[in-house]
């Protein structure tokens, strides 16, 4: 009798182990192959109807799953959608996931390897599977302030970041859109909204133009020219640079002119301070011709240009220098050195370039995610600052900082000044050509940081395709207001 009981117990334990193993295998180890099986319609539907974790800013959900009242128990809902569309993206039953909804998919669904025991617990307790929450580094007040600074009829992008940690404080772009229109479970409504969005080619589904848009950077690129010059050993802080009214090229009728709206025309030779204060073109073009294309490209890459692998956590468009393949002629290299021709940069790249100068030459990896928490609010991950690269030496960074302070104190970025605070800055005006009425359109830039002696904030702004006057009104003054707002927090 005892042997029979013992045999029954062994069989029961073996069956339980077999059952547990089968459940564990299907739920956790075979999940990837099952989920990607094109015939697994049930899993596809479950994904779209699941209770994904929220995306949070200052503790409040900007994206969350809510009861839908349909066969799909849950539907994604977005709060202040236009303000955050470029970051959250959207999660659609009909076209998939974009932005952070895609980049943080595994965390939001709770399907990461780290969430294995959470899923086991949910299976055996019968609880609805729920994803983890993702809290962003964004400051909601600064985000709203930056967004409101961009006129609806102009468009543009603003990045505000902490140069010491790489944390993104604000990232906005216009035009924007209502992400709720694409979270619908109604196919006809989705298709109508998608058609309207696709017709607006100035909006990218890939994410905010602050990290997916590529723009000619104009004179903000002169920061890299200056670093290249100082690192070469051929120039120092006391160097006198050639500053002709225009730079001519052998065998060409083309001439590269100096910046027309500053004081460049008053001197035929210039110090670095004067050239940067007035954004003179010919001194920096001359530096590039002296150092050569390879040296200029190497310097640009030390600040992040041509990096195809950057994520934060969404993939960032690749900023490019010189942009053209092969060897450039002198005119092309001179134009590239002042951020024109085929040179392109994202606003995030310009912010990172500036942050490297602010941080003593050390460029930190940009990050948008502050913490990840389980449904019971246990923190499983938090932002750890990461050094991305050493862009330049502390000595070169300090010298460029001094000159950028002079650009604000004595030069054409004076509107970025903040009373009682040393602000380091650089403007940029990249010419794009004439519009239909004969007005020259530009990409208007400002990039800078403060306080210069203990940097806490970097602000980079681009207003594309504007006239010079409009650009001047929208870049440096807005940067001043954002710097004040961050420092007063």
Automatic annotation (TrEMBL):
Gene Ontology MF annotations: penicillin binding; peptidoglycan L,D-transpeptidase activity; transferase activity
Cellular component, GO annotation: plasma membrane
All copies of domain Penicillin binding protein A dimerisation, residue ranges: 52-134
Protein name: Peptidoglycan glycosyltransferase
Domain Penicillin-binding protein transpeptidase: residue ranges: 156-476
GO annotation terms (biological process): cell wall organization
PANTHER family from the UniProt entry: PENICILLIN-BINDING PROTEIN 4B, PEPTIDOGLYCAN D,D-TRANSPEPTIDASE
Pfam family, one: Transpeptidase
SUPFAM superfamilies per the UniProt record, alphabetical: beta-lactamase/transpeptidase-like
Originating organism: Arthrobacter psychrolactophilus
Keywords: Transferase
């Amino acid at each position: 009798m005892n042997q029979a009981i013992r045999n029954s117990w062994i069989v029961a334990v073996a069956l339980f182990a077999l059952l547990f193993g089968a459940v564990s295998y299907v739920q956790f180890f075979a999940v990837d192959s099952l989920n990607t099986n094109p015939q697994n319609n049930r899993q596809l539907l479950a994904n779209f109807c699941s209770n994904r974790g929220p995306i949070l800013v200052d503790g409040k959900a900007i994206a969350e799953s809510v009861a839908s009242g349909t066969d799909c128990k849950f539907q994604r809902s977005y709060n202040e959608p236009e303000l955050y569309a470029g970051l959250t993206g959207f999660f659609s039953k009909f076209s998939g996931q974009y932005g952070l909804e895609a980049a943080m998919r595994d965390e939001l669904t709770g399907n990461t390897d780290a969430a294995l025991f959470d899923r086991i617990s949910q299976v055996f307790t019968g609880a609805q599977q729920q994803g983890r929450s993702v809290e962003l580094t964004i400051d909601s007040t600064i985000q709203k302030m930056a967004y409101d600074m961009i006129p609806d009829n102009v468009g543009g992008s603003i990045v505000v970041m902490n140069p010491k940690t790489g944390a993104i404080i604000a990232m906005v772009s216009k035009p924007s859109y209502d992400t709720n229109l694409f979270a619908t479970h109604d196919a006809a409504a989705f298709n109508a909204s998608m058609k309207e969005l696709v017709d607006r080619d100035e909006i990218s589904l890939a994410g905010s133009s602050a990290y997916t848009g590529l723009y000619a950077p104009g004179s903000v690129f002169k920061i890299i020219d200056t670093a290249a010059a100082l690192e070469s050993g051929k120039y120092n802080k006391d160097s006198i640079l050639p500053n002709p009214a225009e730079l001519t090229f052998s065998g060409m009728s083309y001439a590269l002119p100096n910046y027309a709206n500053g004081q460049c025309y008053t001197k035929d030779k210039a110090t670095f301070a004067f050239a940067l204060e007035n954004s003179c073109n010919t001194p920096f073009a001359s530096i590039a011709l002296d150092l050569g294309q390879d040296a200029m490209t190497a310097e640009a890459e030390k600040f992040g240009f041509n990096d195809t692998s950057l994520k934060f956590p969404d993939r960032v468009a690749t900023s490019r220098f010189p942009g053209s393949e092969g060897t450039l002629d002198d005119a092309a290299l001179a134009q590239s050195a002042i951020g024109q021709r085929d040179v392109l940069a994202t606003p995030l790249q310009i912010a990172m370039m500036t942050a490297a100068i602010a941080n003593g030459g050390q460029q930190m990896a940009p990050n948008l995610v502050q913490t990840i928490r389980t449904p019971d609010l246990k923190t499983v991950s938090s932002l750890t600052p990461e050094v991305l690269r050493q862009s330049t030496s502390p000595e070169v960074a300090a010298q460029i900082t001094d000159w950028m302070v002079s650009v604000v104190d004595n030069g054409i970025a004076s509107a970025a000044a903040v009373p009682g605070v040393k602000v380091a800055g650089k403007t940029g005006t990249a010419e794009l050509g004439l519009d239909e009425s004969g007005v020259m359109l530009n990409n208007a830039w400002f990039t800078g940081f403060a306080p210069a002696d203990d940097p806490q904030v970097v602000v980079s702004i681009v207003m594309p395709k504007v006239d010079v006057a409009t650009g001047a009104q929208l870049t440096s003054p807005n940067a001043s207001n954002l710097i004040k707002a961050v420092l007063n927090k």
